[in-house]
Amino acid sequence: MRTPALPSPRGTLSWLLQLAYTTARLFKQNGLQNHAAATSFYFLLSATPLLLLLSYALQLLGRLAENSVPASILMAALYSQLQLDSLTAFGFIPRQTQLAAGGVGLATLVLSSRGLVHSVEGAFRVLFPSQGKHNLVLSWVLPLIILPVLFLLMGLAALAQVALNFLAQNDFIGTGNVQVLQALNALFGFAMVWMLLFAAFWRLPREHPRARVAAVFALLATASLALLLTLFGAFFKLENYHNLYGAVGGVVFVLIGGYFAFLLLYLWAQALYAYGKTDVTALEKLFLAGSGEGASKLEGYVFADSHRLLEKYGQVHPPGHTLIEEGDDSRTAYFLYAGRTLVYKNTEAGRRRLGELNEGQMFGEMAYLLNEKRTATVVADTEVTVLALPPHIMEELMRHSAPLSRRIIDTLCQRLERMNLADPG
Question: What is the CATH number of domain 281-422?
Answer without folding.
Answer: 2.60.120.10
